[in-house]
Each structure stands twice: as C-alpha cells, then as structure tokens.
C-alpha cells in the first residue's frame, strides 16, 4: 500500500519489476486487487518474510510500465468528494480514479455504473 498510495514512491517503484507493499490491511488488499483487475498490475503474491504483499508490475511490449503516474486527490487536510454526476471522465485509456464509496473501493467507471459517489483517493495514469 505504501508503494502504491504514496505517489512519489509509486513513480520510482515502476522502474523495477516488483516491489513489496507493507501492511496487510483490508484497504491495501482492496486497492491492489482493483489495480490487478484493471490491468495496471500483473499480479500479487504473499510476502514470505514480513506481512504484506509482493507486487508484480505490468509492462507493455516496449518495456514501458502500465502505471505512468499516480497522483493524490484527497489529502488529510483537504478531502475531495464527488457525486456520480460530478465525476470527471478521462478519455479511453487515459487512466482511472480510485474512490472510497459506501460500496467499497471502486474505480470511477464502476462508481458511474453503480450510480454512487464518494471520496476520490488517487488517480492513476
């Protein structure tokens, strides 16, 4: 989670093939499963030494990482909430937003489909 939710660390982490996400909370696992489902990560494996998860990053045929950038939207001092009508829509393939909703962590596309809004946590391109 610290690797993916901290934007500056995530940018550096995409230069290596895998990284370890510390912590084993429900939120960490939910974000990582969401990124695997959306095709931004190749897979997850339980960490052998410590509690946590080993993340395998996904790359295209040219060797470029699937996650080009991670940006913070909500911060502890400034929470950003959006209703379903005010969720901005990125052009196809331009990225996703990760939202915390009453139905759990969802992408912006899933939130629109389920007609729910929530707190916008991170954006991924």
Determine the strand fraction and express it as a percent band. 25-35%
CATH architecture identity of the largest domain: 2-Layer Sandwich
Structural category: alpha+beta
Topology-level CATH name of the largest domain:
Ribosomal Protein S8, Chain: A, domain 1
Quick check: average pLDDT? 80
Rg from Cα: 14 Å
Helix segment tally: 4
Approximate shape: globular
State the separation between the terminal residues, measured CA to CA. 17 Å
Give the beta-strand count: 8
Please report the first level of CATH classification, the CATH class of the largest domain. Alpha Beta
Uncertain residue ranges: none
Main beta sheet: strand number and arrangement?
Answer: 5 strands, antiparallel
Helix content range of the residues, please? 10-25%
Compressed to H and E, one letter per element, the order equals: HHEHEEEEEEHE
What secondary-structure arrangement, pairings included, does this model have?
Elements lengths: L1 H4 L1 H7 L4 E5 L3 H12 L3 E6 L5 E6 L12 E3 L8 E2 L13 E6 L2 E4 H7 L3 E7 L1
């Amino acid at each position: 989670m610290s690797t993916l939710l901290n934007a500056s660390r995530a940018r550096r982490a995409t230069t290596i093939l895998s990284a370890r996400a510390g912590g084993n909370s429900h939120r960490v696992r939910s974000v990582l499963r969401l990124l695997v489902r959306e095709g931004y990560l190749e897979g997850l494996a339980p960490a052998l030494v410590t509690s946590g998860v080993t993340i395998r990053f996904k790359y295209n045929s040219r060797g470029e990482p699937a996650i080009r950038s991670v940006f913070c939207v909500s911060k502890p001092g400034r929470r950003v909430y959006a209703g379903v009508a005010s969720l901005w829509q990125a052009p196809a393939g331009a990225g996703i937003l990760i939202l915390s909703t009453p139905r759990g962590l969802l992408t912006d596309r899933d939130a629109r489909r389920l007609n729910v809004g929530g707190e916008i946590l991170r954006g991924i391109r």
